[in-house]
Design brief:
3 helices
Amino acid sequence: MIQLPHEGNRTACIRAIQAIQRHGSHLITHMDWGCKAGVHTGWAVVEADNLQLATMMVPSECRRDATITELNRFTTEEMASWTDHSEG
């Protein structure tokens, strides 16, 4: 997941969106924005083979502030196993 925070004003919102558009990546079609709710961050869940490739999806002028987090899902069995181990 890519998180792109920016300052809490309209100009910063526009700059963030324009940076992504200029980058020419498909990232803009994957972005969800919290700006209208007062959370000045964009989020995108993308598929990448590694952290470096995910980072390259972010416009260079946004990389310093970006956070990239590898997401995973747990199976029901994994969750049950973790719960069992934490109780013992």
